[in-house]
TrEMBL record:
PROSITE patterns: TAT. Pfam families: DUF1501 (PF07394). Residues 38-58 are annotated as: Disordered. PANTHER family: BLL7424 PROTEIN, DUF1501 DOMAIN-CONTAINING PROTEIN. It comes from Rosistilla oblonga. InterPro entries: Alkaline_phosphatase_core_sf, DUF1501, TAT_signal. This is Sulfatase.
Length: 479
């Protein structure tokens, strides 16, 4: 009996010892993991700050600046750069397939053939409508992308997608991301400039150039289409000169002392930097926007001598002068719904084209002759295109289409020619589709940036322009 008890005690001790050796480390690891997960994430400490000093991207860049001409409302691709002969063959007949309408109340199933003729131009045989005669002269420097896609048919949401990465309001605009990543070469001008139309802001207004949750230093600065082009920039006469200089010196010292006592408050640092930039801009901005310094030949090239093209031509010429002086990103907007031709398209579309065609082509030519096109991306396009059928039979127009639309880019490492295709009716992108996030990834790549690694921590989450979407650099777009 004694031997049995001894054996049992020995077995018990052996079991406990061996269990401890096997399970102890595992249990300890589990407890440590639970403790770590229960502890709140420690906030970042220190004096991390933000500035607009030029920064070297991780990859070798091909582009260093960008000018975007944003045609808000949705230019009609099948009437401008994506001809569809079958629409003319079936003109006013019932559409033979399915259409995804946005405005069902005014929808029609009747096909509307393009009233305008097309010709092929340049070494690639790029199709261009008679409404864009000046663009036909630069097709060998431009890439027409016919397979753009956002898939969200409302203006606001598609604008957010094209300009902010997702169809959600409140995100940083493309220009904010570029200036956050790269800064600017100019010490006396903003890194990011938005140029508005004299007849009104586009849909979503100031959100088009918002810094979102990036520091306010990266918000777009508005240059107005009329003088004074930047409000509140110049002091009143009785404060000009030495009086203002003394005041600003004192203000700067007070601001610096205030900031030193509040390290890590990035919004405060950004505001102080913006105040100091505004002082430097008093001289640089007037010089950069002074078109009297340009020759008469340059004025004529941009259409400043014609009433239809003068206003947009002035903005395009100022954009060139800004990029020439080191500004990183300039975006020109047309007015609210300028290209949103739900009705009256036969008269309205030619007028819209007349306004922008000559200045846009001149911008590409001018950059090229100055040796700036290779390093400057030029973009032309809106947030959507149009449908192949009639909307509003009493006053013919075309409804929204974000499933296959057209834009063009030039310079900065993009190739020339044509890319992608829509179906035979121009409704859906069916070949080499370019989603908005693919476009952004490709664009950032040309600036030497990796889209997935360009991030900003906001509320404990790493945020990015592409925001986890399956974005890819589209090599076929590159020169």
């Amino acid at each position: 009996m004694t031997n049995n008890n001894s054996d049992m005690q020995s077995s018990r001790r052996h079991f406990l010892a061996s269990s401890a050796m096997r399970g102890g480390p595992l249990a300890l690891a589990c407890l440590m993991a639970q403790k770590a997960s229960a502890e709140p994430k420690k906030p970042k400490m220190g004096t991390e700050g933000f500035d607009l000093k030029p920064k070297q991207p991780p990859l070798k860049p091909r582009a260093t600046a960008m000018i975007s001409m944003f045609m808000q409302g949705g230019p009609s691709q099948m009437d401008l750069l994506d001809p569809k002969p079958i629409l003319n063959e079936l003109h006013m007949q019932k559409f033979p397939g399915k259409i995804k309408y946005d405005n069902a109340a005014q929808a029609s199933s009747k096909v509307f053939g393009s009233p305008w003729k097309f010709k092929k131009y340049g070494e690639h045989g790029t199709d261009v409508s008679e409404l864009l005669p000046e663009f036909s002269t630069i097709v060998d420097d431009a890439l027409v992308i016919r397979s753009m896609h956002t898939g969200v048919n409302n203006h606001g949401q598609s604008i957010y997608a094209m300009n902010g990465g997702r169809p959600l309001a409140g995100r940083p605009a493309l220009g904010s991301w570029l200036t956050y990543a790269l800064g600017t070469q100019s010490e006396s001008l903003p890194a990011y400039i938005a140029m508005t139309d004299p007849k009104g802001l586009p849909v979503a207004g100031v959100l088009n150039w918002s810094n979102g949750w990036l520091p306010s230093l990266f918000q777009g600065t508005v240059i107005r289409p009329v003088k004074p082009r930047i409000l509140n920039l110049q002091p009143p006469p009785h404060l000009d000169g030495e009086i203002q200089s003394n005041y600003l010196d004192l203000l700067q010292s007070l601001n610096r002392r205030h900031a030193e006592q509040r390290t890590g408050e990035h919004e405060l640092q950004a505001r102080i930097a913006n105040f100091e930039l505004a002082e430097r801009m008093q001289f640089a901005a007037d010089e950069a926007t002074d078109l009297s310094r340009e020759s008469k030949a340059t004025h004529a090239m941009y259409g400043l001598d014609q009433p239809e093209t003068r206003e947009f031509g002035e903005r395009c010429l100022i954009a060139r002068r800004l990029v020439e002086r080191g500004v990183r990103f300039v975006q020109l907007f047309t007015k609210n719904q300028y290209w949103d031709h739900h009705g009256g398209i036969v008269k309205a579309l030619p007028a819209s084209c007349k306004k922008i065609d000559k200045p846009a082509a001149a911008l590409v030519k001018d950059l090229k002759q100055r040796g700036l096109l290779d390093s400057t991306v030029v973009h032309w396009g809106g947030e959507m295109g149009r449908l192949p059928v009639i909307q509003n039979e009493a006053n013919i127009g075309r409804d929204h289409n974000t499933y296959g639309f057209t834009m063009w880019v030039a310079g900065g490492g993009f190739r020339s020619g044509m890319h992608g295709a829509t179906d035979e009716f121009g409704h859906h992108a069916v070949e080499d589709q370019v989603n908005h996030f693919d476009y952004h990834a490709t664009l950032l790549h040309l600036f030497g940036l990796e889209a997935e690694n360009l991030t900003y921590e906001q509320n404990g989450r790493e945020q990015s322009l592409i925001d986890g979407q399956p974005a890819k650099v589209i090599e076929k777009l590159l020169a």
